[in-house]
Amino acid sequence: MSTIILLLITGLGLGALYFLVASGLSLIYGLMGVLNFAHGSFLTLGAFAGWELARRMDGSSWGTLIASLVLGMAVGAFVAAATEFLLIRRLYNRHIEQVLVTVGLALASVALFEGIWGTDAIYVTAPEWLSQTTEILGARVPNDRFLMIGAAVLVLLGIVAFLRYTRFGLIIRAGVENRSMVTALGIDVRKAFTVVFAIGGAAAGLGGVLASHYFGYVSPQLGGSLLIFAFIVTVIGGLGSLAGAAIASVVVAVLQQFANYFWGGTGDLMVVLLLAVVLLVRPTGILGKKA
Amino acid sequence: MKSLSKLSQRTWWIVGGVLVVIAALLPLLNISIPGVLPGATYTPGTLQLLALALLFASLALSYHLLFGTAGMLSFGHALYFALGAYGLGIVLHETELTLLPALGLTLAIVITAAYLLGSLSLRVTGISFAMVTLAFAQAGNVLVRRNPGITGGEEGLRLDTEHIPDFFIGVVNTRNLYWLALALLVVVFVVVAWFENSRAGHAVTATRENELRVRVLGLRPFGVKLMAFVIASVLASLVGMVHLLLQSGTTPRATSADFTLTILVIVVLGGVGSRWGAIVGGIIYTLLDQRLTALASSDAIDGLPAILRIPLSEPLFILGTLFILVVLFLPGGIAGAVQRLSTGTSLAPQKRQRLEEAE
Amino acid sequence: MTEIVTESILSVAGLSASIAGQQVVEDVSFEMLPVGVTALLGRNGVGKTSTLRAIMGLIERSGEVTIAGQRVDREPTHRIVQRGVGYVPEDREVFSSLTVAENLRLAERDSSPNRQLIHELFPDLTDRAGQLAGTLSGGQQQMVSLARALVNDNRVLLVDEPTKGLAPLIVMDVAKALERAAQTVPVLLVEQNLQVVRMLAEKAIVLEGGRVVYDGSAEELLSNEALTKELLGVA
C-alpha cells in the first residue's frame, strides 16, 4: 500500500512537470498550429537562471527558492515572447517553416548553453525541507513532490482564470476553435500569439526551476528530455486542449512510475505503447478536436 | 547563357554520371583543397571524411523522399538509420553470419519494423505524425541505452570484424569504404528518382498537394504513403549499415532526436523538394561540421573574449543559427538560391508553397 | 460646378481568388448599391462564398477591392473589418465553446456597441446569454452570427446564406432582421432562397463559373422566369 501511495504521489509530481511544459505547447499549437521545439530551451534557460540566482544568494532559504521560481518564470516568458516576436511572426501562417525555425533555435540554444555552463550536470541546493520526507498512509514521500504538484495546480488555475476572465483569454479560446473567424471579427489575432508564447514560456521557465529540484541538477539537456514526454502528453491529451494536457500529464507520469517499479524499468516504453494505443483507438487524443 | 533549369533531364543524368566518375577517381588522385579538406584526396583521413559526406548525402536523399516528395514531416527518421547500424552490428556480433547474409537479415528486420511502425504512424497526419514518429524513435533510443549488454549502452557498439571481408578493414582500406559509400549514394539516388517517376511516386506527390483529390480519384493515399515510408526507411538503414562499417561502430547518438533534426536541417539547407539539393546539403553539412569543429578548438578562437569565444566554439550553435537564417531568408535552400541565380527570377513563393504542402 | 460624387461603398474589379492552388473566383467585377440589399446569386459552387471570402481577405486573392474609396485588397482581414465591414459567414461559424454573451463580447469593436438593437432584434439571445453557443439550434446560432455583425456600426455588411437549413418561420425572422439592418447599412447578400431575395434585394449580381453573368435589377431578373431558370437553375 505504502509503495502505491509513494508511486502515485511521485507520479503526480512528475506529471506536474510534464503539465508545465505541455500546457504551453498545447496552447501554442491550439492557437497557432506551431509545434514549438524550442520550448525545452525556455525550460532549460529558466532552470539555469534560477540556479544562477540561487548560487549568489543563500540557496537553502525559502526566499531564494521563491525568488528563483519567479526569475525562472520571468526569463521563460521574456525569451518565449521574444522568440515569437522576432522569429515566428515573420513566418505568419507558414506552419512548417515556423516549426523549422524552432528546431534551429532548439539546436543552437542547447549548444550555446553547453558553451556557457558546460555539458555536465550542476547540482542545486534547496531548502532542507524539500529533501526531507513526509509520511502519508505509511509512505515516506519526498517533500519536493508537493512543491511540484502545488505549483502545477496554481499554474493550471491561473491559466484557466486568465482564459476565462480576460479579453486576451477570450480571444485565445475563440482562436483555438476558429482563428480565421476571430480575424473576421476585426481582431488582430497576432497579438494573442505573443501572449500565448509568453504564458507558455513562463510555465516552462517555472517548470525548469522545479525540475532542477525534482532531479537535483541542471544541465543543458534538461529541457530536451522533458520536451519529448511533453509532446507525447499533448498528443495523448489532444492537441490544443488544456484539460486534455492536464489529464494526460497525470496518466502518463503515473503509468511511467508504476511500470518502472513493477515491470522492471519499462516506464518509457509503456508511455510510447500508450501513445500507440491512443492513436489506434482515438487519433485526436482524449479531448482533441477533429483535425 | 543557357539557364540551368532548361537543361534536359538527360543532360542532368550525364552531368551526374561525370561527377560520379570524378568522385570515384578521387582516391587515386592527389588533390589538396586547404581549408576544406584536411589533407590530399588519397589520404585515409580525407577519404574517411568524404565517405561520411557521401553517407550524409544518401541519408538526406532518403529523407527527401519522405519529406520533400511525400510531404511527411517525420521526426523519427534516425530510428531506421540506427536500426541498420545497430541491427547489422548486433547480428554480426551475436551470430556466425557473414556480411551479406547478416545484411539481408537486418534488412528483413528493418522492413518489418518500418511497415508496422509506418502503418501505425500514418493513422495520423501533419504535426501529429511528426510527434508520433518522434515518440517511436525515442523508444528506440531508450531501448539502446537501457540494454548495454546487447547494444553497448552509452559507450556505443563496436563493430565485430570477425566476419567482415578483409578489404573493408583497416585504415589502408578506407578507400574501399569510400567507394562503397559512393556506390550506395548512386543506388539511393536511382531508387529515389525511380520512385518519384513511378505511378506510386506521382500519386504520393499528388497526395502531398491535395489529399482529397487523390481520394476522389479512387486512390488510397495511405498505401502509397506507406510505400514511400518503407522505402525511405530501408534506404536510411542501408546508410546506417555502411556508416557502421566506415566508423567501425555506432553510438546512441544515431538514435537520438537530435540526429533526425540534423537530417532535417541538411534537407532544408539543401532545398526541400530537390534531389540535388539534398546531396549538396549533405556534403556541405559534413564538411562544414568538420571545419567548424576544427575551428572551435583552434588558437584563433581561444584568444577571443568570452562573448565571441563561447558561441564560436560550439559548431551546433553556428549551424543552428545558419539554419534559422536559411529558413527566414533563403526559402528553397541552396538549390533554390542556385536556381534563382541562374534564371534571374524569384522562385520564393513557389518554394514556400512546396514547403507548406508538406503539412 | 458642383458634382456630387456618389462613391460606391464596395466595388470589386478583376477579382480572382484561389484555394490550395485551385482558382475559384475568376475576374469578377461589380459594384454594390450604396443603400439597401444587393444580392449575389448563382448556382451551387459558382464562387459566391469564395467571392465574399476573397473580399474579406480570408483566401488568396488578386484584383481590386475598394471600400468607401479605399483600396483594401492588400490588407489583412482584421484591418478590413476595422474599416467598418460586418461579415456573417456561411454556416454561421459561431464559437461553440464560448457562451452567447462571449461570442457577442468578442465581436464588439465600437466603444458604444448596439446592445439595445440586438436585444430588440433577438430577444431570445438575451435569455440565453450564458448558454454555450455550440448547444444552440441552427436558427439561434444564425442569430448569434448576425448579432455579432450588427452589434457594431458598419459601413457595409457581407452576409452569406443566412437562411440555409433553417425552418420557414425562422427564415422570416432572419429576413426581417436583415430588412431592418438594411435600413441603416448596405448589405451584400448571398442567398439561395429566392423568396427572401425578392423581399429584400433591389439589385442582383449573378455568377457563373466564377464570373459575373448578370448585373442589374433583382426584380427584372426574378420576374423573368426563363432567365431565372437559365441563370439560377430554379424558378
From TrEMBL, chain A:
<feature type="transmembrane region" description="Helical">
    <location>
        <begin position="261"/>
        <end position="281"/>
    </location>
</feature>
<feature type="transmembrane region" description="Helical">
    <location>
        <begin position="146"/>
        <end position="163"/>
    </location>
</feature>
<dbReference type="GO" id="GO:0006865">
    <property type="term" value="P:amino acid transport"/>
</dbReference>
<feature type="transmembrane region" description="Helical">
    <location>
        <begin position="34"/>
        <end position="53"/>
    </location>
</feature>
<keyword id="KW-0813">Transport</keyword>
<protein>
    <submittedName>
        <fullName>Amino acid/amide ABC transporter membrane protein 1 (HAAT family)</fullName>
    </submittedName>
</protein>
<keyword id="KW-0029">Amino-acid transport</keyword>
<dbReference type="GO" id="GO:0005886">
    <property type="term" value="C:plasma membrane"/>
</dbReference>
<dbReference type="InterPro" id="IPR001851">
    <property type="entry name" value="ABC_transp_permease"/>
</dbReference>
<feature type="transmembrane region" description="Helical">
    <location>
        <begin position="227"/>
        <end position="254"/>
    </location>
</feature>
<feature type="transmembrane region" description="Helical">
    <location>
        <begin position="65"/>
        <end position="87"/>
    </location>
</feature>
<dbReference type="GO" id="GO:0022857">
    <property type="term" value="F:transmembrane transporter activity"/>
</dbReference>
<keyword id="KW-0812">Transmembrane</keyword>
<keyword id="KW-1003">Cell membrane</keyword>
<feature type="transmembrane region" description="Helical">
    <location>
        <begin position="6"/>
        <end position="27"/>
    </location>
</feature>
Automatic annotation (TrEMBL), chain B:
<feature type="transmembrane region" description="Helical">
    <location>
        <begin position="98"/>
        <end position="117"/>
    </location>
</feature>
<feature type="transmembrane region" description="Helical">
    <location>
        <begin position="45"/>
        <end position="66"/>
    </location>
</feature>
<dbReference type="GO" id="GO:0005886">
    <property type="term" value="C:plasma membrane"/>
</dbReference>
<keyword id="KW-1133">Transmembrane helix</keyword>
<keyword id="KW-0812">Transmembrane</keyword>
<feature type="transmembrane region" description="Helical">
    <location>
        <begin position="222"/>
        <end position="246"/>
    </location>
</feature>
<dbReference type="GO" id="GO:0015658">
    <property type="term" value="F:branched-chain amino acid transmembrane transporter activity"/>
</dbReference>
<feature type="transmembrane region" description="Helical">
    <location>
        <begin position="73"/>
        <end position="92"/>
    </location>
</feature>
<protein>
    <submittedName>
        <fullName>Amino acid/amide ABC transporter membrane protein 2 (HAAT family)</fullName>
    </submittedName>
</protein>
<dbReference type="InterPro" id="IPR001851">
    <property type="entry name" value="ABC_transp_permease"/>
</dbReference>
<feature type="transmembrane region" description="Helical">
    <location>
        <begin position="177"/>
        <end position="195"/>
    </location>
</feature>
<feature type="transmembrane region" description="Helical">
    <location>
        <begin position="316"/>
        <end position="338"/>
    </location>
</feature>
<feature type="transmembrane region" description="Helical">
    <location>
        <begin position="261"/>
        <end position="288"/>
    </location>
</feature>
<dbReference type="InterPro" id="IPR043428">
    <property type="entry name" value="LivM-like"/>
</dbReference>
<feature type="transmembrane region" description="Helical">
    <location>
        <begin position="12"/>
        <end position="33"/>
    </location>
</feature>
TrEMBL record, chain C:
<dbReference type="Pfam" id="PF00005">
    <property type="entry name" value="ABC_tran"/>
</dbReference>
<keyword id="KW-0067">ATP-binding</keyword>
<dbReference type="InterPro" id="IPR003439">
    <property type="entry name" value="ABC_transporter-like_ATP-bd"/>
</dbReference>
<keyword id="KW-0029">Amino-acid transport</keyword>
<keyword id="KW-0547">Nucleotide-binding</keyword>
<dbReference type="InterPro" id="IPR027417">
    <property type="entry name" value="P-loop_NTPase"/>
</dbReference>
<dbReference type="InterPro" id="IPR003593">
    <property type="entry name" value="AAA+_ATPase"/>
</dbReference>
<dbReference type="GO" id="GO:0016887">
    <property type="term" value="F:ATP hydrolysis activity"/>
</dbReference>
<protein>
    <submittedName>
        <fullName>Amino acid/amide ABC transporter ATP-binding protein 2 (HAAT family)</fullName>
    </submittedName>
</protein>
<keyword id="KW-0813">Transport</keyword>
<dbReference type="InterPro" id="IPR052156">
    <property type="entry name" value="BCAA_Transport_ATP-bd_LivF"/>
</dbReference>
<comment type="similarity">
    <text>Belongs to the ABC transporter superfamily.</text>
</comment>
<dbReference type="GO" id="GO:0015658">
    <property type="term" value="F:branched-chain amino acid transmembrane transporter activity"/>
</dbReference>
<dbReference type="GO" id="GO:0005524">
    <property type="term" value="F:ATP binding"/>
</dbReference>
<feature type="domain" description="ABC transporter">
    <location>
        <begin position="10"/>
        <end position="234"/>
    </location>
</feature>
